Amino acid sequence: xxxxxxxxxxxxxxxxxxxxxxxxxxxxxxxxxxxxxxxxxxxxxxxxxxxxxxxxxxxxxxxxxxxxxxxxxxxxxxxxxxxxxxxxxxxxxxxxxxxxxxxxxxxxxxxxxxxxxxxxxxxxxxxxxxxxxxxxxxxxxxxxxxxxxxxxxxxxxxxxxxxxxxxxxxxxxxxxxxxxxxxxxxxxxxxxxxxxxxxxxxxxxxxxxxxxxxxxxxxxxxxxxxxxxxxxxxxxxxxxxxxxxxxxxxxxxxxxxxxxxxxxxxxxxxxxxxxxxxxxxxxxxxxxxxxxxxxxxxxxxxxxxxxxxxxxxxxxxxxxxxxxxxxxxxxxxxxxxxxxxxxxxxxxxxxxxxxxxxxxxxxxxxxxxxxxxxxxxxxxxxxxxxxxxxxxxxxxxxxxxxxxxxxxxxxxxxxxxxxxxxxxxxxxxxxxxxxxxxxxxxxxxxxxxxxxxxxxxxxxxxxxxxxxxxxxxxxxxxxxxxxxxxxxxxxxxxxxxxxxxxxxxxxxxxxxxxxxxxxxxxxxxxxxxxxxxxxxxxxxxxxxxxxxxxxxxxxxxxxxxxxxxxxxxxxxxxxxxxxxxxxxxxxxxxxxxxxxxxxxxxxxxxxxxxxxxxxxxxxxxxxxxxxxxxxxxxxxxxxxxxxxxxxxxxxxxxxxxxxxxxxxxxxxxxxxxxxxxxxxxxxxxxxxxxxxxxxxxxxxxxxxxxxxxxxxxxxxxxxxxxxxxxxxxxxxxxxxxxxxxxxxxxxxxxxxxxxxxxxxxxxxxxxxxxxxxxxxxxxxxxxxxxxxxxxxxxxxxxxxxxxxxxxxxxxxxxxxxxxxxxxxxxxxxxxxxxxxxxxxxxxxxxxxxxxxxxxxxxxxxxxxxxxxxxxxxxxxxxxxxxxxxxxxxxxxxxxxxxxxxxxxxxxxxxxxxxxxxxxxxxxxxxxxxxxxxxxxxxxxxxxxxxxxxxxxxxxxxxxxxxxxxxxxxxxxxxxxxxxxxxxxxxxxxxxxxxxxxxxxxxxxxxxxxxxxxxxxxxxxxxxxxxxxxxxxxxxxxxxxxxxxxxxxxxxxxxxxxxxxxxxxxxxxxxxxxxxxxxxxxxxxxxxxxxxxxxxxxxxxxxxxxxxxxxxxxxxxxxxxxxxxxxxxxxxxxxxxxxxxxxxxxxxxxxxxxxxxxxxxxxxxxxxxxxxxxxxxxxxxxxxxxxxxxxxxxxxxxxxxxxxxxxxxxxxxxxxxxxxxxxxxxxxxxxxxx
Length: 1233
Prior knowledge:
Blueprint: E1 2-4, E2 8-11, E3 35-51, E4 60-68, E5 75-76, E6 86-87, E7 96-116, E8 125-132, E9 137-141, E10 145-148, H1 152-155, E11 159-167, E12 172-179, E13 185-191, E14 194-200, E15 210-215, E16 225-232, E17 235-240, E18 243-248, E19 257-259, E20 270-278, E21 281-282, H2 283-288, E22 294-297, E23 310-313, E24 319-323, E25 333-340, E26 346-353, E27 358-365, E28 368-375, E29 380-385, E30 395-402, E31 405-410, E32 413-420, E33 431-434, E34 451-458, E35 461-462, H3 465-469, E36 475-477, E37 479-481, E38 500-503, E39 508-511, E40 517-518, E41 524-525, H4 531-535, E42 542-546, E43 557-563, E44 568-572, E45 580-583, E46 591-594, H5 601-610, E47 611-623, E48 638-641, E49 647-649, H6 663-667, E50 687-693, E51 701-706, E52 715-720, E53 723-728, E54 734-737, E55 744-746, E56 755-762, E57 768-774, E58 779-786, E59 789-795, E60 801-806, E61 817-823, E62 827-832, E63 838-841, E64 856-858, E65 870-877, E66 880-881, H7 884-888, E67 894-896, H8 902-905, E68 914-918, E69 921-925, E70 941-944, E71 949-955, H9 969-975, ...
């Protein structure tokens, strides 16, 4: 490497006085100055260094660096493809050097000052570092040809590499044709400025073939672009500049003959090639040497470039002003130009119409070209032409006025020409404004143009834009002349996961519709990563999209999440989960069944790997149809399972892999002990071998082969259930940090362009660092800065940036809180819990690469300061979970796991359900709730008829002696409660109606009924010697067929009743006492109750739930008790989104023992292990329960225990149904519904 400093410098507007050795300083200090350096030949420049002007206050603080081969068509050097400006100096003496990440190969360099010392002027000393560059160049004029035929030995090489550089002004043309075996070939074509690679199978076809790869954009900018095509067997890599794509090709393309002459002659390449190499063989040099391996025609060995001066409108305030021509007085006016832009709108040209006292506007609107003529008499003429003109390609426009006829032509297409009869009267005094106009000289009602203009001509005379740049012609503002600075921000696209990229001049946007992702770059998934996360948000069973790797490459998938009380199952269907019959046939020896899953291969594999346990049912029902036959003989049947294409398995459900056995063989209980499967006994009666496959390495089942089906009277049926998994290894992975100086360390975070970090934490401390990763200058950090604030901070080279989320509630409350941070090239955002995300946009042209090199610290920092104290759980970086528990086991001051989940998730347990702590998570104990389900939210209800009743009997805690001996009063106190809580829901149209009766052995009772007026009554009798106490509501017509919920609470002598779902007014209670009231009860009891009851509960006892779901000897059901949904027709179910299925009517089997085939359709089988729960939800939705009441009278605290013998049945309120009920025995209490 050599320093290039003694070079010819073209310095614009030198200060004439003063020594040149002091440095360069222009006469004027503005942004239109530059310093141009001619290196005399093409040089590889690797670094630049600047210093302030000697002995002065003149230095640059920022500048742009341009390069060119010809002194025209300049190109701006950009660091990281985005940042254009270089930081300069802070004083006149210090040297600031910048090494170029990608060396520049050019003859000319130009430095353009942007900012300088405000106390001085523009001034600098410049040094350029680089080395000599040599190359072989060939020029093609559109009719040139070149063919290279490798030697036979080389053509069979397993690795082939073709590399070259090209430059052109044409946006289309064939660069390369590589012929393989037969008619197979590869075509590399430039089309609309993009490089396309095709696989062509028929050379005679007019088609270019199948598109394999599309790379690059704006490659017709007359600058050098590098291309490399690499083949390793059938793997093909194409690299354009610094972007690479890979594709697989057929074996016929395993060796090539290389042509630069295309098959389609109308797409010849017109431009220059440099350093065309095939496996390090210089093909251009072979042409120069007249080698027999090459055939060439019309090639020259230099690169002649046409000069085309472009103008860049960098912002909407720029304009180019040109004077009119004297020839316009003849009446012929012609304006031609070419433009390219990404914007949908912008002013291209405007000028005043002096005779009409108006203005003409030629502008883009909604990607079309429009002409508007506005005059004082308010006449407007609007003409449309062209479409989709914001595609970044060069488009030509010709405006012509002659003989009262005005026409506009776009892209020389007569079909895109618009005409109007308005003449243009322009003179040499007229002024034309391109792209915009200064406010004081013209009015611009449209947005200014952002893009490039070139080949501007007036009446066929080209406009010398270099004269404009030197202020010798016209005027301009906010322009970059002699360059087109257009950038394709969508190539390569920063939109992830299939997001569609669109752009304007200054930015790009990602359309994430239908991708399953969101955010500025479609980086973050919309869905949870597993069913466990949905459950811990309070969701019930149903269909959900899960994204197993978050922001990773695996797509979201639709699964069924079965939220049971103790586990959360993910259920993945395939195309046949039914029990399928197989008929014997002499024409076939085997039957094959293939199973296609609703999830893709990588989705299935990820679910299985991340789960603690997976299972799949495999069943075979047989009659004279053998399965394996013997251990030593060839098996009749087998199945294929496992990842990828799977492997053949020779064990059956419930047996060990490789055992050639079924479940009965493992348990030693087969029908015939000489065989290891029931079906191998070959009995002429139905048998089955069924079980679960639980070895994850063999799942899922992909295909099944059944043999022994050709014999007469052979019958069989098989079933392969859905894949079911539970237990997520990632969601509960946690670590507890109990020292401020402790931390966990992991490899460096990989997230140069996009990174997302998510985790949960809980703590009682007000501050601490969750995560930190450092680089030389860059860093990324997330911390709890106070008890109500989380801060996400980072630096990618543009200076530190902070994103903060402040909460209205404390975050150190020892409950789980979620944090998600994301940083991409467009923005940085931070979300805490379910609060709105706070976002901060990235600079439009700032540095975008996050460069880190240290270890990633979790729970602390490298300096061991401000460490986090508490728990961190489910930490994921770019969708990958870090194993905190594994690291914590070997790290002092950090413990694996973190208890205490009920403090955060206990709220999900509803209806008196109790949260139970587990090592990994929690569960809801519904044993004392009148509801069931994962969160005790499924209503348990039933429909009653007039003949239906339920009796629930509970013995007292202490047995009473049959001889009637007295018990101590202290023991009586223990078995008598001071109060009770009773709740139930009902829906009926019957009035009067008995809802609930609760009685004890001591002739005490509570009765809940609807009287003949439709009012609710509660009748208490707390002692046989006392009268009945009645609480009656004034709410009318509760027998209205709507759902009502009643809650009764008694504490000693205070009783409250509440009807919480009644739409009418509150209760007005009346208390009365009368013995005559009891005489009505036998009549009410004889009427029974017709309607629906649900949610019946007494303290912690739910007798009707036991009757429906857990029947035992304490429950006596009389009549028909039908499960139903009380709430289905009265109010919206908060879990109505849950997917439910019902069973089809099952036909009776004609053959005893024969399995029911196709009784359960595939959609019913979808819910797998919870089929019974879903059936009852569909048929009855919610169950009804009766709650027992133990009553106690304060005045009996010190009395002796009553006689253990009950009185006659006629005194029992429901004696009319005595025959259908068990008579309560001694020491019992009884519920009756």
